[in-house]
Specification:
Blueprint lengths: L2 E3 L6 E7 L3 H9 L1 H7 L6 E7 L6 E7 L5 E12 L3 E9 L9 E11 L2 E9 L4 H24 L1
Antiparallel strand pairs: 1-2, 2-8, 3-4, 4-5, 5-6, 6-7, 7-8
Helix pairs in contact: 1-2
Length: 153
């Protein structure tokens, strides 16, 4: 597994090399049929996924946690530059109705040649280290799911 984690203050940076061309990886992020199959943490169950992938478009997904709670994630796309970059806001609403402060996610895809892509994910504007660390666990599992999805589909 090739995951590098660099938490720094209010941001989280994850890097992963994937065995797929950049266009394939980008499609997995922007095609609702594909994203609905992988875009949840490792032990969660995807329930629904909606995406209007354009600047100003809204994305929304619901998932079930291992404890059975339903969690809602949503945001707005700020930048869509196929096939190299996505930027979107990110909000979490838990089963009790608690809404976390809005954060920002940037996904950068670098073509490494030979059908390989480096994905770099920046998630910024966390108010607490606990929130950042919770998201690190979620994104790490989600990127593992993404790698499995891309390599097996």
């Amino acid at each position: 597994m090739n995951i590098m984690v660099k938490p720094a203050g209010s941001e989280l940076v994850l890097t992963r090399e994937l065995k797929a061309p950049r266009e394939r990886v980008f499609a997995a992020w922007v095609d609702v049929k594909q994203a609905s199959l992988w875009w949840v943490p490792r032990d969660f169950t995807p329930l629904s996924c909606e995406m209007d992938v354009r600047p100003g478009g809204v994305w929304r997904r619901r998932m079930r946690s291992p404890s059975g709670d339903v969690i809602l994630k949503h945001g707005v796309y700020r930048e869509v530059a196929s096939p190299e970059r996505l930027v979107f806001t990110y909000v979490t609403e838990d089963a009790s109705g608690t809404i976390d402060p809005e954060t920002l996610v940037s996904v950068s895809l670098t073509d490494l040649g030979g059908g390989r892509t480096r994905l770099t994910l920046w998630h910024t504007a966390f108010e607490t280290e606990l929130s950042r660390d919770d998201h690190r666990r979620g994104w790490t599992g989600g990127l593992e799911r993404l790698a499995d999805f891309i390599e097996n589909n």
